[in-house]
Each structure stands twice: as C-alpha cells, then as structure tokens.
Amino acid sequence: MIDLHTWSTPNGRKVSIMLEECGLPYRVFPVNIGKGEQFRPEFLALNPNNRIPAIVDSAGPDGKPLKLFESGAILVYLSGKTGKFLPQRVRGKYIALQWLMFQMGGVGPMFGQAHHFLRAAKEPVPYGIERYSTETRRLYGVLEARLKEAAFLADEYSIADIATFPWVARFEWHKVDLNDFPAVKRWFDRIAARPAVARGMAVPTPP
User: Fold this and answer.
1) From CA 46, how far away is CA 155, in angstroms rounded?
2) Distance between first and last Cα of the chain
3) Among 44, 173, 183, 206, which one is least packed by beta carbons within 10 Å?
4) CA-CA-CA-CA torsion sign (174, 17, 4, 56)
5) What value does the mean pLDDT take over residues 109-126?
6) How much of the chain is in helix, strand and coil states, percent to nearest 5?
7) Quick one: how many helices (H) and strands (E) in the chain?
C-alpha cells in the first residue's frame, strides 16, 4: 500500500494521476497547505523541504518501506516499480526524462511564479507579471513546437505528459488561451479524456 500525502495542486496531482494510471492501491492523506499543515512535524518527517507531495510505500525496494518526496522523483520511482509510462527503449526513455526535467525546471517554477504574481501577490507587481507571463508563453511555445511533431512529449504517453498536464490544466490561472497553441490543446484534450487522469485530478476529495 502507498500512502500519498498531498493537496490539490499541480505537483500533487501528478502523483495521484500516476497512481491511478498504474492501478496501484493507495491511501490519501490531505495536507492543507492553505492552513500550513506542510509545516507540521509529522509531515516534515516525510519531506524536510515542507512541500507536497510525499509518499510512503510500505512495499518499497527489498520489501522495506520507502519514504520519497519531490514529484518528479516519485514519478520515476512509480514507473520503475510498475514498468509503466517510461519507454523501455533507451532512446525513448531519455527523451521522456528530458521532457520531465523540462517540466520540473521550467514549466512548474515559471507557471507557478505567474500564478503568484497574477493571483496571490498582495499588490500588483508589473515587472513580475510581465516577466513570468512572458516566460510562461515562451514555454507554451516550446510545448507547441514539440507537440506539432509528436502526439506526446516522448515517443508515447509517459511520465513527462503526466507531470506537465496538471500545470497546463491551470491555463486560465496564467491567462493563456489554449486556442493560441492548437497542438498543445489537442494534447491537453486527449489526456484530459483519460479516465485515470480525471480520477487523479480529483484527489484529494474536497471536504
């Protein structure tokens, strides 16, 4: 059994989508970041960086429990555990990991900053809004170029798509019209139609 400590953010939803796609049994432990629950000692014991998500796999490597944080690392681990959603051929594997790192190092941080300056800043910061809105659109352009030539970010549906989808799902938060990026929209609609993705996006269940 896998215990998932999470909240309804793009990073949290990456892992719940992956668990649903893999068909792995898991239990959800909500960590309400709006109430600061990520700073509780019991959560810091799982992730000293006080960020969701984190997992505990009671049947980890060698049959021993494994605690793991960082959403990208969790996706790679779950892929290794199940043999799913990371291409087996060497070329495809590294293309998928390349796009996973693109999400971790670019899409997540930059979209997140756009969310902050557009939605959460206590007062408008024009420089921050311009900088991160421009970078967000640039990254959409990178995705558009890739998805014009391929149905998915790697050679097949993979953890790269699973990691990126929840961030693109908040396109309204960063004031992007998906119709401006038709290849991204086709990709987005294709993934959104997957039942496991819909289930994963609904985790944790609202109280």
Assistant:
1) 34
2) 23
3) 206
4) negative
5) 92
6) 60, 10, 30
7) 9, 4
Answer yes or no: pTM beyond 0.90: yes
- Backbone phi and psi for residue 3, each to the nearest 5 degrees, phi listed first: -95, 125
Measured CA angle at 75 (ends 19, 207), to 5 deg? 45
Per the CB < 8 A criterion, the answer to whether 132 and 110 are in contact is: yes
- Which residues are CB-neighbours of 201 under 8 A, at least 6 positions away? 13, 16, 17, 166, 169
Helix intervals (H) in the chain: 10-22, 41-44, 71-82, 90-102, 108-115, 126-149, 159-168, 182-192, 195-201
CA distance 49 to 56: 16
Q: What are phi and psi of 11, to 5 degrees?
A: -65, -40
pLDDT digit string, tens, across residues 178-193: 999 999 999 999 999 9
Q: 126 falls in which pLDDT band (50, 70, 90)?
A: very high
